[in-house]
Amino acid sequence: MDLDALIGCVTSASCVVTQTTSGLIVGMLLFLVAAGLTLIFGVLKIVNFAHGTFYMLGAYLAYTVFAVTGSYVLGVLGGGLGMAVFGVIFERFLISRVYGANVLMQLLICYAVVLICDDLVKIVWGPDFYAMGMPPAFQVPPLFIAGGVVPPFYLVLISAALVIGGALGLGLGLTRMGKIIRAAAVNPDMVSALGINTTLLYSLVFAVGGMLAGLAGGLAAPVRSLTPGMGFSVLIESFIVTVIGGMGSIAGALIAAVVLGLIRSFGTIGFPLFTDGLMYIAMIIILVVKPSGLFGKEIV
Amino acid sequence: MSVPTRSHTLRDIMIGCLVIAALAAIPFLLPSKAFQDFVIRCSSMALFATSLNLLVGYTGLSSFGHGLFYGLGTYSFALLMQKTGLPLPAAFVLTLLLTAATAVVVGAICIRLRLIYFAFVTLAMQMLAHSIVISWVGLTGGDQGLQGGIPRRVVAGIDLGNQYHLYIFSAVLLVIGLLLMRHIVSTSFGTSLRMIRDNEVRAAFLGIVVWRVKLTVFVLAAVFAAVGGIVMSLFVSGAYPELINWPISGDAIFAIVLGGVGSFLGPTVGASILLLLNDVVTRQTEYYGLALGIIILLFALGLRRGLLDFITQRLGGRPAGGIS
């Protein structure tokens, strides 16, 4: 524990800027993963334990597409689209068989997929760390804001995540499909009785959830090292986000993700070894005070 | 789920004694160190998995963080043996008391939460404990684990440093633990557990104080998990962060789903299968996860229930409760 360092950082503008930016990056990427998780839970009442794997595969796909085409944008899109397809396959062939089964059975299926994909990644890409590196277009000198160092790429990442999150919010709020998804979260039987194909709808929800995780993985690829098993910490963190924000609430996920990102980035200064512990404590406190999470009432 | 009566209890004790006698004799017929290691690890895992099934199968509490108490058992026992001069039985009892006290606090926070939230807060509690173990390097050795071995292992002529003695000791602990848990689920308390699992509201109407029953079973399950942890601590001569990390809870869940939540011995069978798989697969391939994952999928999608539940249903028994 190093409280002096933490106080020193909080009182210095440059340190606050640097840590806030890195906290926002962590938070926004986490939000994309958690938004998919909470969407899937909201509509299907399934806790997708394999969601971190979507993120990992998205990052690896983006890496490969980037290596082949040299385009970072194509890489990110490739990761997102690839995971949308993967999400549909995962839903159709595995998860749809355990709808209505005990949560442990669903957990076990996801756990199996996590184990299989981690090893498949080892077979296809090898067990070593990969570093994608900053795309050439962004290899420019960092900006200095109030003395804090902010690479322009970080701002691009944050705004890209904001745009994707905004598109998701608008899509759910304003489009007909968004209305159907929100209705299915409240009463799937009624939606089905009204003649809407819920089987297709569930696949679509998994496609959107998978795409969000894949996009997050692709966006994160230049600033994270890629390794088999990288999905797990993201999974646990995005769970904490969904639980703190309230399972099924996308607005809650956004707030919780940003708070968690900031806890992480400032926590590394004050409590270098106990950063993870801080997140769990935050989650426990929230759940003890308000067991349904910050925005638990609201469904999507 | 059959409910044992008094004559059943007697029968169970007889079977337990026979199992111990058989296990005691096996090393003389088949001197295999690997087999003894297997039984020791299996005893530890089976105690842990069966204790989790008290929560999952009997009470309907899906805990994802039961490994907290298993890990707490390993760490507090190893620490008590290393840092204090207490004799082994005292450290054993103190470890169980410490675990029970922790379980009261954790349980008081968790049991009022509903299904999915209960699962995640228990998981978060375990991850918090794991973070503490990792960051408190001075006490726990951090991510290197608690090294330096476990001293004073000779108790009343039994030398737990000797593999054969530890083997018998583990088997005896397993049998006693299973008998005690079997007894717990056969009492009226056990009936209350099943009633809460099947219909919590109705149980409350019938005068069962639901939170008290849930908290009691949470603490009992934690204590049995800690016994499993102590066996593991003796086996590895210390404690390691992996023993308190989340996959250990995943292993226990896997073991009970594999063996069957509806049968009392399901988790024990599941634990044996899991460890066997572990040993066989790691010898055959470096892609352990790939093989294990495929096996899990075959089990979960093929049988759709644990092995023992599957067999009892095939033999014409009535469908077991719990997961289906």
Automatic annotation (TrEMBL), chain A:
Membrane topology: Multi-pass membrane protein
Keywords in alphabetical order: Amino-acid transport, Cell membrane, Membrane, Transmembrane, Transmembrane helix, Transport
Pfam family, one: BPD_transp_2
UniProt KW Flavoprotein keyword: no
Annotated InterPro entries: ABC_transp_permease (IPR001851), BCAA_transport_permease (IPR052157)
BP GO terms, sorted: amino acid transport
Residue stretches spanning the membrane: 25-47, 59-86, 98-117, 153-174, 194-219, 239-263, 270-289
Gene Ontology molecular functions: transmembrane transporter activity
Subcellular locations according to the entry: Cell membrane
Protein origin, superkingdom: Bacteria
GO cellular component, one term: plasma membrane
Family the entry assigns: Belongs to the binding-protein-dependent transport system permease family. LivHM subfamily.
Protein name: Branched-chain amino acid ABC transporter permease
Taxonomic source organism: Rhodopila globiformis
